[in-house]
Amino acid sequence: MRVTVTDSLPVRMIVTDLDGTLLDRNRKIPEGNACALRRAAANGLEVAFASGRLPGVCSRLALDIGLPECRIMGMNGALIWDRPFGEKLAETTFLPDAAEAVVRILDAEGCIYNAYTPDGVFTNLRVDAEGAERFRAGYAGSGVHVVIGDDAGMAALSEQVVKFLVKDTGGPEGFRRAQDRIRELPGIYLTSSGRDNFEVMRTGIGKAEAIRFLAGRLGIPLSAVMPFGDYDNDVEMLTACGHAVAMGNGSPSAKAAARYITLENTADGVGYAVDALLDGKLEALRKGVVAQPLRSNGESI
Predict the structure, then answer these.
(1) CATH topology for 96-202?
(2) Is this model's pTM higher than 0.70 or not?
(3) 91-105, 167-181, 201-215, 228-242: the lowest-pLDDT one
(4) What superfamily would CATH give domain 13-91+206-285?
(5) Distance of alpha carbon 212 from alpha carbon 146, whole angstroms
(6) Cα–Cα distance between 236 and 187 in angstroms, integer?
(7) What is the pLDDT of residues 102-127, one digit of tens each?
């Protein structure tokens, strides 16, 4: 029987980033994290993924760990699904002229990048046949079609583009010039999910906005949302929500924006904090609080 969340818990929805947060170095969800999220769902808490990845990829990961009702916010919130491979609640894409302007700049500067559509990834990544197969394998079972080639960016314009991910592998000068030129375009902003990349998004789209939208539909105040993040593109959602948790491996800006600090992603940091929440010991992770460390199941040692 499903147990409803009690009034003693300050959180009604858990939202977690994926890369650098829920996923380990092998881009897998450790069982400690999976078990804690299933426990949260069984106790009546909403669980959601908020990621720069496509929602089909997020959906596959949610089903793999037994979360069939997980809410999905993909592409930094540009695409929102009510559950894995479920109803599309929101979809925001670039205006065609803006997407074409970005592609022309990236191509002119020799950048290596991915252009994402709602169910596709187009990359000009320079790989051999084996590398191409590995790249495609990363999208297996997610309903995502993959296009690899020098003209992939232009090919993406035949669909609706939702995000660009630019990698610092095409040459540092072109990488920096592309950022400067794209910043001058109207209706666009840049963010980053790591030290070696930048992401191009449509203005007004982000994880914080997606959480506001989804929490509003569910009747959950932002003060009762517990987001997990590790990098600069997570800062706005960490700032917006009442019980924000930064990973131990998080960037300085992510940690500054959070209320709590948990273990690193390689040490099941999400599960560690979720268990602490469910066991009534979340304040042990409060920034600036000197408290007994907890076991992974939330018990003091």
Answers:
(1) 3.30.1240
(2) yes
(3) 167-181
(4) HAD superfamily/HAD-like (3.40.50.1000)
(5) 31
(6) 18
(7) 999 999 999 999 999 999 999 999 99
